[in-house]
Design a protein that fits this description.
The chain is α+β, with helices and mostly antiparallel strands. It has 2 helices and 5 strands. Strand 2 and strand 3 form a beta hairpin. The termini are far apart.
């Protein structure tokens, strides 16, 4: 089993109002990840993913295109400290 990682993604483009967060949660649940996805005031979506590195990487790749109704322009990512987010019980949208 690979070590857990925590990664924050900021997804820009046409990503709000197109079921991006719900679709992200579905993929994250399938991958067994914990975290959250929420809309940001600037029109972007923030995704925080915690879990095995291979699963977080797979979600990161999926975020680059998102659901079919989305038009992803860019995905920025940054590693976070896992221990700050260990308390997350599952993957949620806000």
């Amino acid at each position: 089993m690979s070590a857990e990682v925590c990664r924050r993604y900021i997804v820009s483009g046409r990503v709000q109002g197109v079921f991006f967060r719900a679709s992200t949660a579905s993929v994250a649940h399938r991958l067994g990840l914990r975290g959250r996805a929420r809309n940001l005031p600037d029109g972007n979506v923030m995704v925080l993913a915690v879990g095995p590195e291979s699963a977080v990487d797979e979600l990161g790749e999926w975020l680059r295109h998102g659901p079919s109704s989305a038009q992803v322009a860019d995905v920025q990512q940054a590693d976070e400290q896992v221990d700050e987010w260990q308390h997350l019980p599952d993957f949620r949208t806000h």
